[in-house]
């Protein structure tokens, strides 16, 4: 049974359209405040009532905070002896008894090989000593770039910076040369560590523009021709070394540690938006410790991380979400196994590592959900009946607050789904973008474990809020952690008002940054004089005190895979075509592609129709499938020629004969699009486009 669960996922094909078998997916349910969630034989118990999770502080601002009780620990420090990441590492080493920490594998079919906390610490000391001996002084004036895919050396390098109070600057592997130069120059970066030589070589011709950059380290520097390669770098004033070279220098010249204070700068994380120059977010040691405490403040602590837990690291460590996951595991004594670096092999890594916790993004969760439900829909009547019966029986348990993986249905029907993750998952956590209620409910039933949803930003050191363990409702991002404050403010242009519990989400807390690095103008746009971070997201308070993210103030859309698209930029580019009069680009945050409503030019569309052998009135041409497909093809060709990336291209369109106007309520008096009204007007067509479009081929 359920061999369909992994068929396409194993091939690694991208999935988008979720095909659900009728009757197998349930609604949202909440347990009462007196109930606990059972996961197998273990019970989770939240420390406040699930039906009343936040309270509103006195005053006109309608500020909300987490509901607390007298048993709650310090909201900004989980452990009394952990005030920095360095101290957190020491705690992890102690509680794990010096056990294994970082794992990797050399290829498919190979086992994971592990290094211990003590080995990581030793290598970090040697690498840090090597940098100091090479002339890079310890302290927060030295910036170390990490331009590498996630791997054990990434975390070792990061901890080496911590051991010597240097500042790490993580860089996305997809970063363009101009953005890389900007970051290196803005931070006065003196060392850049790359995983492969090609990344280092991309800076050769621009070395003169980055005067502070002195040393480049390549983790996997090819031995063949290494001396000639080093001479090429030396010719432009750059010292090229391998990772092992630096370790060797540190071994011969050990240096005393210079451990950081809580207020010391730990890292500068650059935001990953799609428009404009990347902005640097400085985060201190304390920011990360507070972030760790905020996560724990909504959980019964022993249930949320121990040395017996195993985490798979497949998200980029350059992203603050995965960085936070790694620090969390470091403090708790987790084991962290890295994926092989190939998304097509993630399934193999999961089934080999057998993690107990999985921090993921909606795109991964949606893929698996898509495959299972599609497989059920296409299976025999007997298999559909058994799956539906099992699903409904466990749904009844879910209504009672029971999340379990030890029923007969788990053994007979759902084991294959649980085995996708390795068969040992204790909880799942989804972040980086919203996930649908349908999908969250699916995992609580089929995998049989708590499923958490989180919300955060780089500027908040990752966490703003997340759902709690006994809350069975979905479609929200839970409650703020620790002593973080959240308020909603009016956005009259989009018809959102705080008095209606809707508006722009503003947050204030000890994990919020103090301003963009060397960018006071952008800082003023994000932080007001009272310390509130204006997130640009539109939120809604729900009756049970949870927060939902329902819109984006600046209309920068975040798709299910975590990528950002700027619809107005795309619209402006497409409307350069004579074929188009107007276009409305829409992206559902729970899907991984965008769609559009197109108002074509009446004369130009006749030419397109003629090219595919179709005639008719303007209205008839707009309804014709062949014409629509040809218009889409023209749009995509134009977008590609203009440099749009694949995820920025519309994958489906509907042709609309009536122009957008002020008269029909779709444009403002200045002829700007009223995006909220457009979504309302075209919601049925948009839903149809998503329902009938398959981007998996």
From TrEMBL:
Record's keyword annotation contains Zinc-finger: no
Ranges for domain AMP-dependent synthetase/ligase: 111-517
InterPro entries: AMP-binding_CS (IPR020845), AMP-dep_synth/lig_dom (IPR000873), ANL_N_sf (IPR042099), LC-FACS_euk (IPR045311)
Keyword Oxidoreductase on entry: no
Domain of life of the source: Eukaryota
Reaction catalyzed: 5-hydroxy-(6E,8Z,11Z,14Z)-eicosatetraenoate + ATP + CoA = 5-hydroxy-(6E,8Z,11Z,14Z)-eicosatetraenoyl-CoA + AMP + diphosphate; (5Z,8Z,11Z,14Z)-eicosatetraenoate + ATP + CoA = (5Z,8Z,11Z,14Z)-eicosatetraenoyl-CoA + AMP + diphosphate; a long-chain fatty acid + ATP + CoA = a long-chain fatty acyl-CoA + AMP + diphosphate; 15-hydroxy-(5Z,8Z,11Z,13E)-eicosatetraenoate + ATP + CoA = 15-hydroxy-(5Z,8Z,11Z,13E)-eicosatetraenoyl-CoA + AMP + diphosphate
GO terms for cellular component: endoplasmic reticulum; membrane
UniProt-listed Enzyme Commission number(s): 6.2.1.3
GO molecular function: arachidonate-CoA ligase activity; ATP binding; long-chain fatty acid-CoA ligase activity
Classification via Gene3D superfamilies: N-terminal domain of ligase-like
Entry-linked Pfam families: AMP-binding
Keyword annotations: ATP-binding, Fatty acid metabolism, Ligase, Lipid metabolism, Nucleotide-binding
Family, per entry: Belongs to the ATP-dependent AMP-binding enzyme family.
Known role: Catalyzes the conversion of long-chain fatty acids to their active form acyl-CoAs for both synthesis of cellular lipids, and degradation via beta-oxidation.
Stated name of the protein: Long-chain-fatty-acid--CoA ligase
